[in-house]
Design brief:
The strands form 2 sheets. Strands 2, 4, 5, 6, 9, 10 and 11 form a 7-stranded mixed β-sheet that branches. A 4-stranded antiparallel β-sheet has the order 1-3-8-7, with no helix packed on it. 0% of the residues lie in helices and 50% in strands. The chain is globular and about 40 Å long. The chain has 123 residues and is mainly beta.
Length: 123
C-alpha cells in the first residue's frame, strides 16, 4: 500500500521559515517525480513545485520562486520543501504527491497523494 505522510507544518510569523517533509512507503520512490501542492480555504488546490526522479530538475510556481526549495533523498524515500521568507498568502494545507511522469505540474498527472499538513503564516 502506497503511503505519503507529510510533516513539519505549523504556525510561523511572516518572514519566517518552515521545512516540510514527506515520508513515503509502498512505492519505488526513486522512480517517481514528486511534487508539492497547496490548498487555501475556499480555493483550488494549486501547484507549488516539482522535482524529477533523480533530483536534477525542478520547477516552481512563480509565487514561490526564490523563496521555496524542493529536494529529495532517494536513500530515505523522503521529499522536502524548504520554505523561506514566508508570507500570509502562503497559508494553506500543503500536500505532497508522486507521479510516474517526468516533471509534472498538473494535479491530474499525479498518481498518489498525502493527507496534507497545515501551514499558517501570521502577519
Amino acid at each position: 500500500q502506497v503511503q505519503l505522510v507529510e510533516s513539519g507544518g505549523g504556525l510561523v510569523q511572516a518572514g519566517g521559515s518552515l521545512r516540510l517533509s514527506c515520508a513515503t512507503s509502498g512505492l519505488t520512490f526513486g522512480s517517481y517525480a514528486m511534487g508539492w501542492f497547496r490548498q487555501a480555504p475556499g480555493k483550488e488546490r494549486e501547484f507549488v513545485t516539482a522535482i524529477n526522479w533523480i533530483g536534477l530538475s525542478t520547477y516552481y510556481a512563480d509565487s514561490v520562486k526564490g523563496r521555496f526549495t524542493i529536494s529529495r533523498d532517494n536513500r530515505k524515500n523522503t521529499l522536502y520543501l524548504q520554505m523561506n521568507t514566508l508570507k500570509p498568502e502562503d497559508t494553506a494545507v500543503y500536500y505532497c504527491a508522486a507521479s510516474r511522469r517526468g516533471l509534472p505540474h498538473a494535479r491530474e498527472e499525479y498518481d498518489y497523494w498525502g493527507q496534507g499538513t497545515q501551514v499558517t503564516v501570521s502577519s
